[in-house]
Amino acid sequence: MKVYSQGDQAIVVSLRGQVTQKATQRLLVLRHYLNEQNYPFITEIVPTETDMLISYDAQMMLKQFDIASPFLYMKKLIAEIDLSEEKWKKQRRCVKVPMYYGGTYGPHFDDLLEELQMTDTDFIKRHTAADYFVSMMGYSPGFPYLSGVDTSIVVNHTAAEKRFIPAGSVILENNKCGITTTDTYEDWLVIGWTPLKLFDPTKKDFALISLGDHVKFDVLREGGGA
């Protein structure tokens, strides 16, 4: 990992080389450790798939510690944190997502089966067998982008036109799977729907699924109407 300064009150931890699940996990172990320590001088931690921005109160650090450089202090602190696989296993979390496939729940499901020359049973078996990793969060609050889609069901195109997509829709976008958390209007390929509420603004932890989580899909019913 590469560590560099971002202004005089922030530090960036950036992944080197190809972005992998294991590399992203190391960033999340780092975030988990810093959150557990509850350092008063760390004001914000913002992770992405490839980088992590850590903001700090440089003035507080200069007053609290006998140091000449808050950046060098932070760099040394980060270098001494254990980011091993064992640490990740202890904080790993898996969320099970029940879902309906096809019918009015998945308006693009049948067309995808025809394109892939695959039966619904075979598609669902491959989709539910995968161990998905939440590699990104975005688009809307609590919206997870899931890596780990079986290569045999990856499609490199969107729908022919945009349409209304209700919250809870399970979508495919290139080599990632996603779950909408709010009603939207997009050209994503919708294969199903989950009744699980992933976003609740009334709760402190408003997102049910977070960056770094693992997700497994369970079949509620194959096809059918809403």
Keywords:
226 residues, Cyclophilin, 2 domains, 4-stranded antiparallel β-sheet
Could you explain the architecture of this structure?
This is Allophanate hydrolase subunit 1. Keywords: ATP-binding, Hydrolase, Nucleotide-binding. GO terms for molecular function: hydrolase activity. This protein is of the alpha+beta class and 226 residues long. The chain is built from six helices and 13 strands. The chain has helices at 21-37, 58-64, 70-79, 85-91, 109-116, 120-129, and strands at 2-5, 10-14, 42-47, 51-56, 94-101, 132-137, 144-147, 163-165, 169-173, 176-179, 184-186, 189-193, 214-222. The strands form three sheets. It has a seven-stranded mixed beta barrel with strand order 5-12-9-10-7-6-13. A four-stranded antiparallel beta sheet has the order 1-2-4-3, covered by helices on one side. Strands 8-11 form a two-stranded antiparallel sheet. A hairpin with a 6-residue loop joins strand 6 (132-137) and strand 7. It is elongated.
